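In this section we walk through a basic example: taking a raw amino acid sequence and producing a predicted 3D structure, encoded as discrete structure tokens. The instruction is simple. Fold the sequence below.
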Amino acid sequence: MDQTTRESFTAVQKNGDGNLTGFQTSSGRILDYQQALTEVQAGAIAGVNVFKGKDGEMYIRGDADGDPSNNLDQLPTF
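The resulting token sequence is shown next.
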């Protein structure tokens, strides 16, 4: 998939601790964290990647592009 056909995240859900729990895509789909993780790993979502945390779990983060305004934490909530 090229950049023009891939979806991106446009909004996020957070729990009481401020951790991301869900994502809304540019096509309006709502994904829970596990669904989003699977799609990011498959390359279906632009602008994000997956990394392994110190706890051994896999996490989603925005691509490092030097622009803090598009960090996942900065997206609107839904």
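Looking at the output, two observations stand out. DSSP finds one helix and five strands in the chain. The longest strand covers residues 9-14. In the next section we compare this with other chains.
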